[in-house]
Design goal:
heterodimer, A: mainly alpha, B: alpha+beta, 21 helices, 66% helix
């Protein structure tokens, strides 16, 4: 329990780790196409020591190392997937902000669509039953109701 | 002495909350008027005591009383007085006190402005709010006492977190909490109605204005937060899908759905049980947001496990509130069946689709936010869920919602036909078709397909909303303040969507290294780095750069981005500088010094980025208009009701 204040302070310090954004000093990549791939990749990779930051935005030295790594691999002609695989091999899935589709993320990726599907089904059923009610109660011409 | 007064006040407030709940529930159940008459004064007294406690914390901060642990940890003698006050919600204990204070404020608001509601109903509403208050006061008194003493007192306080030393960020938490806690009103109305077993449209009419007020504060809080992160965090981002942001966005989505569904319940007496469920969900998500932000569980599941007391308390509170209300719902809701129907093409159907998309979006965000925590807790792997996931799920849900939003206000309640819509709104249809083609021609090559489609749907919303207003006016239909409110809010959404589509696809961001005298061209703007100078602020030291921006040789502006180191805890921060414009921002942030006066920096051109926050403000104004209409509508329906009763009595 004595550690409690300390733990809290550390947590707070982590939470409030200040934003000091990152800019590298290397010259730009050779062409616009590589530049774009660099942008996308660095925005998909997580700075592992930071609080929810991409390596593109973090100023931590680890993020700088990873950016240099992405840059040199791009220049060496590696594909985006090869670079991602390299990162995952070293740091695990945690490094990817876009989680790969695999058994432990199936629910994550399919969940929203399953819920949308179920919800849409419910909407269809409700609308059908409401239409039936409408037909039963207004056998003649229905009086339309305007909004105010 | 002062902190002890605060603590005593909290204990007394807890007693009052107990009185408020007990007398409310039992009195309403027995139909005992004398008991129920106690509830309103108890709510008032509770508010008085909590306000006193809050005041005592503020006084301790203003006096820099470092014998109070919270003050020593979050304030400093050199802190400007306005931020000493803001420090009252700068950390865990204080923000809980703010939460409770705002809850008490809403409670008193409900007690005061509910004169015409039956005493039994309002007693139950206040009793439910009392229970929530009991939970939070107990939480504060047992695990997070803001008035805990520090012996011996500290000589000097640690500083307030520099991030919070900013007007927008200082105002951000109170706004968000007003929104979070405001949703407790709709929740309490729903629970009271469920307990009483009477879910008529009167319930919805009374709950709606409170929900809109809560929603507009939430909107304002989120807008402020986004604006703040844009100019303060230093890299020009305005939304990060950070769990803390998601925590405020989920209740917003559900509250938006709730406002629309309350509309159906009020006007057509339908969707009663669904509306009640949404009211429960919206407030539950607010509680969940509080839990996520306050328990430390977001930093890591393991950090949570080392100090689980706070997290467990909030979790238990959520379990009681959510579990209890869902059980009540399961027991009572099937009684709320309506016997009215509508056709497949009708306002009702479109609003159901609106609710479907908003709720699925909220659930998707909830899934993405909690999924990594749950996997980690179950030892099934450590993954990150970030912006690429949320963007890819959220965008396809929002585009159809925008399309619906353009059509919805034109469609009649109950039943309508495509033929009538096309015949009566020919001009709108042609206008939108023409503009869509123009947008595709203008944007597709530069912005890509998704952004172009998004921009076109945004313009669709803007044009059809404006045309709807114009046509109502030309046809001499009554333009009530509710219509204005809806129009403004929908225009706001359209602006936000357009801003997002354009700025994220056409914005330019360039990292460069410049020595004094060097320059860089971006989108026709010439950024010249003139050099740096040292600056000293009240509680920081720093370096300030001078960037001159010209266009075609004409001066545009001078920007002064800074890099600061704060004295209190020697943390450093980037102060970006920008020139705002209605159609584009120019943005410069300093990176690191690289010797010989050279600096790395990030230069940005951000088209239409202002639309994001202007749109947010427009939504807030829409909410204000809609609420200001409420008294008139309530009076009108009351008159109609009593006239009807008279007629019945005579007949």
């Amino acid at each position: 329990m004595k550690m409690l204040p300390f733990t809290i302070m550390t947590l707070l310090a982590l939470l409030f780790a200040l934003p000091v954004f990152a800019v590298d000093t290397e010259p730009g990549l050779a062409n616009r196409h590589l530049e774009q791939r660099y942008e996308i990749l660095t925005h998909e990779l997580r700075c592992l020591v930071c609080q929810n930051e991409t390596i593109a935005d973090s100023s931590a030295s680890l993020a700088a190392d990873l950016r240099a790594q992405v840059r040199s691999q791009l220049l060496a002609g590696k594909t985006d997937d090869q670079i991602r695989q390299y990162m995952v091999a070293r740091y695990g899935d945690f490094v990817l902000f876009k989680p790969p589709v695999q058994p432990n993320t199936w629910l994550l990726w399919s969940g929203p669509f399953l819920i949308l599907l179920i919800g849409a089904l419910v909407v269809v059923l409700v609308v059908r039953s409401k239409t039936r009610i409408l037909q039963q109660t207004h056998s003649g011409r229905a009086e339309d109701e305007r909004d105010n | 002495m002062i902190p002890e007064i605060g603590q005593m006040a909290l204990v007394l407030a807890l007693c009052m909350a107990l009185v408020q709940s007990m007398f409310g529930f039992i009195g309403a159940q027995r139909g005992d008027t004398a008991w129920m008459r106690v509830v309103r004064p108890a709510a008032g007294a509770q508010f008085g005591f909590i306000a006193l406690a809050f005041l005592m914390l503020v006084v301790s901060l203003l006096r820099s009383d470092f014998s109070v642990l919270y003050v020593a940890q979050n304030s400093n003698t050199q802190l400007p007085w306005i931020y000493k006050i803001a420090a009252a919600w700068g950390a865990h204990e204080g923000s809980l006190l703010l939460w409770s204070s705002i809850l008490a404020l809403w409670t008193v608001g409900v007690a005061l402005f509910s004169g015409k509601l039956p005493l039994q109903f309002i007693s139950r509403v206040l009793a439910v709010m009392g229970v929530i208050s009991i939970g939070f006061l107990l939480f504060m008194l047992t695990t997070s006492d803001p008035f805990q003493r520090l012996l011996p007192p500290a000589q000097q306080g640690a500083d307030l977190n520099p991030i919070l030393q900013d007007p927008a960020m200082a105002g951000h938490p109170p706004m968000l909490y007003m929104g979070y806690v405001g949703l407790s009103v709709a929740f309490a109305f729903a629970i009271a109605a469920l307990i009483g077993g009477k879910m008529d449209s009167i319930w919805a009419r009374w709950a709606r204005p409170w929900t809109i007020v809560a929603w507009l504060f939430l909107t304002l809080g989120i807008t402020l937060g986004s604006w703040w992160s844009y100019y303060e965090l230093g890299w020009g981002g305005w939304w990060f899908w950070d769990p803390v942001e998601n925590a405020s966005f989920m209740p917003w989505l559900v509250a938006t759905a709730l406002i629309h569904s309350l509309n159906v319940t009020e006007k057509r007496g339908m969707f009663k049980s669904w509306t009640a469920l949404l009211a429960i969900a919206a407030f539950s998500l607010s509680l969940l947001g509080t839990f996520l932000v306050r328990s430390g569980v977001l930093i890591s599941v393991h950090a949570f496990a080392t100090d689980p007391r706070r997290g467990i308390f909030v979790l238990a509170l959520i379990a009681v509130v959510v579990g209890g209300s869902l059980a009540l719902y399961a027991w009572r809701a099937p009684k709320l069946v309506s016997e009215d129907g509508f056709a497949p093409l009708s306002r009702e159907t479109l609003l159901m689709l609106n609710n479907l998309l908003l709720v699925v979006a909220a659930i998707a965000i909830l899934l993405g936010t909690l999924y990594p925590l749950i996997l980690d807790a179950l030892n099934l792997g450590k993954i990150s869920v970030g912006p690429p996931y949320f963007d890819s799920i959220f965008t396809p849900l929002m585009l159809p919602l925008l399309l619906l939003m353009g059509i919805g206000p034109y469609v009649f309640w109950k039943r309508d036909t495509v033929g009538r819509l096309l015949a009566q709104y020919k001009l709108t249809v042609w206008l939108i078709a023409a503009l869509t083609i123009l947008i595709f021609v203008w944007l597709w090559r530069d912005a890509g397909l998704v952004a172009t489609v998004a921009a076109a749907t945004a313009v669709w919303v803007l044009v059809s909303t404006l045309m709807n207003l114009v046509l109502r006016w030309r046809r001499h239909q009554l333009l009530t303040r509710s219509v204005w409110g809806m129009t403004l809010a929908h225009l706001g959404i359209g602006m936000v969507a357009l801003g997002i589509a354009v700025t994220s696809s056409l914005g330019i961001e360039q990292d460069v290294t410049l020595s004094p005298g060097q320059s860089m061209d971006i989108h026709g703007y010439h950024f010249q780095f003139a050099g740096t100078r040292d600056v000293t602020g009240p509680n920081y030291q720093g370096v300030e750069a001078l960037i001159r921006i010209t266009r075609n040789g004409e001066p545009v502006t001078e920007l002064h981005p800074q890099k600061r180191v704060y004295d209190g805890n020697s943390s450093s921060a980037t102060e970006a500088d920008l020139q705002p414009g209605l159609f584009r921002d120019l943005y410069v942030a300093l990176g690191q010094p690289l010797g010989n006066g050279a600096w790395s920096m990030r230069l940005q051109y951000k088209p239409l980025v202002r639309f994001l926050w202007l749109g947010g403000l427009l939504m807030v104004f829409g909410g204000i208009f809609a609420v200001s209409d409420w008294r008139r509508r309530v009076r009108a329906t009351d008159t109609a009701l009593s006239a009807g009763q008279r007629a019945v009595a005579r007949g």
